[in-house]
């Protein structure tokens, strides 16, 4: 159940634009929202170091960040009900550690437009996706493209039928039930070009259908489920667009460390999806 939402903020227009979406998500879940900002105390110019000692510069940066955080989105998230957390360090690592330490159920953060999205693998968002143990909801550039209203409540869960698919489906089912969303299931048989149509009638499809039915049965899932063939990323994004999904749920590896939680496919979906993506 989603009861505590962590909203990382950097005071950018993207965060401001995301405020209404985070508000509504919290209202639907009956959750509280905490804002966290991670201050980089080591970011100073050569001129600043020439003029003043480094500790004075760091103290000033901290005080400026604290004041900005106290005043940021106070109408949307009143200080009396929304905790504000100011920390220092590497933003991605600190956000993930804060979510774990304080037992947050969901991290919600926007991506940015243009070059940021194309280079997501080097971003703070990518670090959070790698390190966070709780689900992470990332959205397209909210400053220019507002996420569809949560009132629509149509969710799509993508599974690869691996041993981790049951966990992913159960997580998606639980979250969708909490906000009274309709959840559908999709599996993509990897195929390229003209072979995609052939795969739809192959023995591979029949085997996949059997595994998908078994997965749904074990998870007590009685919603719509379909199997399609094609390039995985493009086919999943097309399925999300075709179903007018408000949220696409995908899996991350439950293992951290050298193996990492995020796979290249999940990164690509987060980067290119036109609807918010929840990675669990």
Explain the overall architecture.
The structure is a single chain. With 280 residues, the chain is of the alpha/beta class. It has eleven helices and ten strands. Strands 3-2-1-4-5-10-9-6-7-8 form a ten-stranded mixed beta sheet, sandwiched between helices. α4 (91-101) runs parallel beside α6 and α10 runs parallel beside α11 (264-272). It is elongated.
Write a short abstract of this structure.
This protein is α/β, with parallel strands linked by helices. It has helices at 13-29, 46-51, 54-71, 91-101, 115-118, 124-131, 165-178, 195-199, 203-218, 232-242, 264-272; strands at residues 4-8, 32-39, 84-88, 106-110, 136-139, 154-158, 182-190, 225-230, 247-250, 277-279.
Radius of gyration: 20 Å
Q: What gap, in angstroms, lies between the N and C termini?
A: 13 Å
Task: Give the overall silhouette.
Answer: elongated
Average pLDDT reading: 83
* CATH fold field value of the largest domain: Rossmann fold
Protein traits:
280 residues; alpha/beta; Rossmann fold; 2 domains; ten-stranded mixed β-sheet; 11 helices; 10 strands
């Amino acid at each position: 159940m989603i009861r505590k939402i962590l909203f990382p903020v950097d005071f950018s227009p993207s965060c401001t634009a995301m405020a209404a979406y985070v508000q509504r998500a919290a209202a639907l879940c009956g959750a509280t929202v905490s804002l966290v900002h991670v201050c980089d105390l080591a970011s100073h110019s050569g001129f600043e170091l020439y003029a003043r000692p480094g500790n004075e510069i760091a103290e000033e940066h901290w005080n400026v960040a604290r004041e900005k955080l106290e005043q940021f989105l106070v109408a949307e998230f009143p200080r009396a009900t929304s905790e504000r957390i100011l920390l220092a360090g590497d933003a991605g690592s600190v956000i993930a550690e804060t979510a774990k330490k304080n037992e947050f159920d969901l991290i919600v953060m926007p991506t940015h437009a243009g070059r940021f999205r194309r280079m997501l693998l080097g971003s703070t968002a990518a670090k959070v996706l790698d390190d966070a143990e709780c689900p992470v909801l990332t959205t397209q550039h909210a400053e220019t493209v507002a996420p569809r209203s949560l009132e629509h409540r149509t969710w799509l869960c993508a599974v690869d039928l691996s041993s981790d698919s049951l966990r992913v489906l159960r997580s998606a089912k639980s979250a969708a039930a909490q906000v009274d969303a309709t959840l559908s299931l999709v599996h993509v048989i990897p195929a390229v070009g003209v072979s995609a149509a052939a795969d739809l009638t192959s023995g591979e499809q029949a085997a996949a259908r059997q595994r998908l039915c078994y997965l749904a049965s074990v998870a007590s899932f009685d919603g719509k489920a379909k199997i399609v063939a094609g390039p995985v990323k493009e086919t999943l994004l097309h399925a999300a667009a075709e179903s007018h999904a408000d949220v696409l749920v995908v899996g991350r590896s439950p293992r951290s460390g050298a193996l990492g939680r995020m796979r290249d496919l999940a990164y690509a979906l987060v980067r290119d999806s036109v609807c918010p993506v929840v990675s669990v």
